[in-house]
UniProtKB/TrEMBL annotation:
Keywords associated with the record: TPR repeat
TPR repeat boundaries on the chain: 37-70, 119-152, 187-220
Alphabetized SMART domains for the sequence: TPR
Protein name in UniProt: TPR repeat protein
One Pfam family here: TPR_11
Gene3D superfamilies in the record: Tetratricopeptide repeat domain
Source organism per UniProt: Enhygromyxa salina
């Protein structure tokens, strides 16, 4: 009972953003009861919030070791999410990333083994297989995610975008059209539709899809870029230049080669107006 009380105190401190107080209370909870799986879990979440990945992984492993006869797929999911975060650290080489992605896939597989309905684990596995250039495994994972939770739009978006990236825009269209019926307020879904239509040389329809995405999220850089490029294809030069200038203003961390394409297209549109 004392351990639960100490852990709850830690959670309260964490909610108040008092990291040292939260860590102290949760560590005390584990000292009081070294088999308290939930205390390890919450300590892991605290470390993850602080981006202390090694400590977070260690704490989550403590939760797994003490989960007893109540298997918790979520615990393995937490480890997988930490391994993915580690792969994204600046300065991580591609080889190191691939090791982390494989480790994370194993963790998410363990999570699914304990809880087959954990649709988010299937989604994460899909994204990792895609990063590893394994489209068939990614396809299976995304489709399983859709089967388990047909309202979780990121699975439709990722599956559709993967088909576009691999040159199957017509297949992407059927996936994304189904996705828009499930969730028509996800800007990424309409952005994917715009990409597919543009690749299928249907710029006018692409403009309409991108406009829907823009109405939902007016500041999304990839939507502004896609809309500008679709206008350029029609060509609606003035609208293309205006939209791509808006993209440049909001581009932020967009890749440099995308910004270059936008600037080159603006120059081409301006010279033709």
């Amino acid at each position: 009972m004392d351990s639960i009380k100490q852990m709850n105190e830690g959670i309260q401190q964490l909610n108040k953003n008092n990291m040292s107080g939260a860590e102290r209370a949760m560590t005390e909870a584990i000292k009081t009861d070294p088999t308290h799986a939930e205390a390890y879990l919450n300590l892991g979440k605290l470390y993850r919030k602080q981006q202390k990945w090694v400590d977070a992984e260690k704490a989550f492993r403590g939760a797994i070791e003490n989960m007893g006869d109540k298997p918790q797929g979520d615990y393995y999911f937490e480890i997988g999410s930490v391994q993915v975060a580690q792969s994204l650290e600046p300065g991580t080489s591609r080889a190191e990333q691939e090791v982390k992605w494989r480790d994370a896939i194993k963790s998410f597989s363990e999570a699914i083994g304990l809880n087959p309905n954990l649709y988010r684990a299937h989604y994460q596995m899909g994204t990792l297989h895609e990063k590893l250039d394994e489209p068939e495994q990614a396809d299976q994972a995304y489709r399983k995610c859709i089967e388990l939770n047909g309202k979780y739009s990121p699975c439709f978006v990722s599956l559709g975008n993967m088909y576009i990236d691999y040159g199957f825009s017509n297949v992407a269209m059927s996936v994304l059209e189904t996705g828009t019926k499930v969730n028509d307020t996800d800007p990424d879904m309409w952005n994917g539709m715009g990409r597919a239509l543009l690749n299928l040389n249907q710029p006018k329809d692409a403009v309409e899809a991108y406009k829907k995405a823009k109405r939902i999220d007016p500041d999304k850089p990839d939507v502004l870029f896609g809309l500008g490029m679709a206008y350029a294809e029609i060509p609606m030069r003035k609208e293309a230049a205006e939209t791509l200038n808006e993209f440049i203003a909001k581009a932020g961390n967009s890749p440099e080669h995308i910004k270059k394409v936008a600037n080159d297209t603006i120059a081409r549109m301006d010279s033709a107006i």
